[in-house]
Every structure is written in structure tokens, then in C-alpha cells.
Amino acid sequence: MRVLSGAVSVRIERVDLPGIGVRNDLVTERGDRLGVILFRDGERQLAVYDADDPDSARYSVPITEDEAEALSDMFGASVAITRLTKLTDETDGLYTEKIKVGVNSPYAGSTLGDTRMRTRTHVSIVAILRDRKVIPSPTPDEQLRTGDIIVAVGTRTGLDTAMRLIDHGPA
What pLDDT tens digit does each residue of the chain (171 aa) get? Predict the structure, then answer.
């Protein structure tokens, strides 16, 4: 199977392992082969394969379901932020900003809607990063917590106003 990501072709191969489970491999541009083995009993392993023998793992690491979810969240957040940054780099006057909800923020414990962010700053909230997880397109009833990172898109002026709003409340 081939998946196109932008102009780069990414190759993912699925290998059935009779009686064991299934292995999904990602072949990198350099030719390295990374695999995720999903065993029939629910166990999983990450593996790096020998370039000369795709059936021979150089090493593998067993991971729990929580660890797999954390890895997925880490990659997902990283990719989403990178894509947003690239988008804003290509668009004059549009920027992204990560705004931390600090311990002294008047909005810690309030909903996103309580900030009236879009009305007050003309900035769009595209995600919230919380505990290594991404909350994409959060709704106005999403409660903000201390330590949350708000991912916002807007003009430089709007984003500066949004940071002040989250830190100090409305002016």
C-alpha cells in the first residue's frame, strides 16, 4: 500500500503473520523499515528491521496499549502542529501560536467559550494540547485546565491579544 503525504510518497506494507497476528511496516525514504506487530492476544511490539532482511528484526520493544496511545498522540500532535506551521509560513499575515493556560490564568477551569476568544481577538482555536493528547477543533464547552496549550491561528495582533486575554482576562 502507498500513501501520499503532500508530494512525498510513503510506503506502508501489511504482512499477515499466520497464527500470530499482523505486522504493519513503514519504509522510510532512506529505506529503513519500522514495524508495528499486533499480536492476536492484543499485545504489540515496535520493531526495527534489518535493511538486508525485512523478516529479521534488529530489535523490538514491547509496548502497552497506553504506551501505543501516547506514541500516537505524540506523533499526531507533532504532525498537526508542523502542518499548521507550514500553512502559516506560506500565507502572509497568518500565524500560529501556542498559548499556555498558566496557573494564574483567569480562564483555568472555565470553558473555551467563556474566553469569547474569536469575538475578542478574531483568532481561531484549532486545537488544545493536554497531557500529550490533542483535542482537535475544540468546542466552546471544552473546559480549559492549567497547563493546557491552546493552538491558535490568526493575525500577529490578534494572537498577541489572545495571549494577553488568556494570561490576564479581558482588558
Answer: 444 444 445 677 888 889 898 888 888 888 788 888 889 898 999 999 887 787 788 889 999 888 887 777 666 655 556 666 666 555 667 788 899 999 999 999 999 999 999 999 999 898 899 987 888 888 999 999 999 999 998 888 999 999 999 999 987
- The residue assigned the cell 477551569 is 109
How many whole angstroms separate alpha carbon 38 and alpha carbon 17?
9
Q: Are strands 44-50 and 53-63 parallel, antiparallel or unpaired?
A: antiparallel
> What's the first-to-final CA gap in the chain, in angstroms?
54
Can you give the pTM of this predicted structure?
A: 0.53
48, 54, 65 from 18: Cα distances, Å: 20, 17, 22
Q: Show the domains of the chain with their CATH numbers.
A: 2-63 (no CATH), 80-168 (3.30.70.1450)
